[in-house]
Amino acid sequence: MNHYLNIANHPMVFILCALLLIVVITQTLTFMYTAYKRGQELAIETHVMQQTMKNAALFSIVPTLPIILMMFALAVPLGQNFAWLRLSIVGSAVYEGMAANIAAQNQGLADISDPGLTPKIYVVMMFVMTIGIIWGILFNIIFMKQLDKLSAKIKNGSGAVLITIISTALFSGMLATLSAPYVANIENKVAIFTYIISGVSVLICHKLAQVFHTPSLKDFSLPIALVIGMLSAIIITTIT
């Protein structure tokens, strides 16, 4: 029933995805060149700019590790080309899987691994994943300037603590929304055990970072927890 993968992994789909990625890479190189030229105009020393670029590149690698893992995971049900495209542009490790599952369930499937997935449903999933992510970008384009002014006004006033509380509450709510369907489903014991093991892995990484004075270990705690969680899910599924 995986004949939809004949479309998903077709060379033409690869070419279309590659063209979009070339545009993104061109934009990135253009921004880098423009920023570098502007730095020269401001008389910033060359070695300072080069070191800044190296540091930025290094610290950009860490957040992408979970995305790479998710790309390989999504390549199985969605095909290598579209997973590569989605997680190379605007997508996130959490959003893509969630959006794909929502689209699949809306079409009557259990999830994206359902053997009943057809080319028609696959196209619906592609549209949902692509269109669903653009609203945050449009919102930022239209309202970010006003939000920055409001945020600066609150921070300079007595509401600095309120900003921290609101940000933490929003982030906690997002995590709860994403994890609740799996953790609250007592019949899905694999998901519950995986959730617990992954969470404990993060805590252990943070503790080791404190003991051995290696703050960088905290940065890698998420990808480490993802790998451990995946391995634990495989082991639990195998032995149960």
From TrEMBL:
<keyword id="KW-0812">Transmembrane</keyword>
<dbReference type="Pfam" id="PF16481">
    <property type="entry name" value="DUF5058"/>
</dbReference>
<keyword id="KW-0472">Membrane</keyword>
<feature type="transmembrane region" description="Helical">
    <location>
        <begin position="121"/>
        <end position="139"/>
    </location>
</feature>
<feature type="transmembrane region" description="Helical">
    <location>
        <begin position="57"/>
        <end position="78"/>
    </location>
</feature>
<feature type="transmembrane region" description="Helical">
    <location>
        <begin position="190"/>
        <end position="208"/>
    </location>
</feature>
<feature type="transmembrane region" description="Helical">
    <location>
        <begin position="12"/>
        <end position="36"/>
    </location>
</feature>
<keyword id="KW-1133">Transmembrane helix</keyword>
<protein>
    <submittedName>
        <fullName>DUF5058 domain-containing protein</fullName>
    </submittedName>
</protein>
<feature type="transmembrane region" description="Helical">
    <location>
        <begin position="160"/>
        <end position="184"/>
    </location>
</feature>
<dbReference type="InterPro" id="IPR032479">
    <property type="entry name" value="DUF5058"/>
</dbReference>
<feature type="transmembrane region" description="Helical">
    <location>
        <begin position="220"/>
        <end position="239"/>
    </location>
</feature>
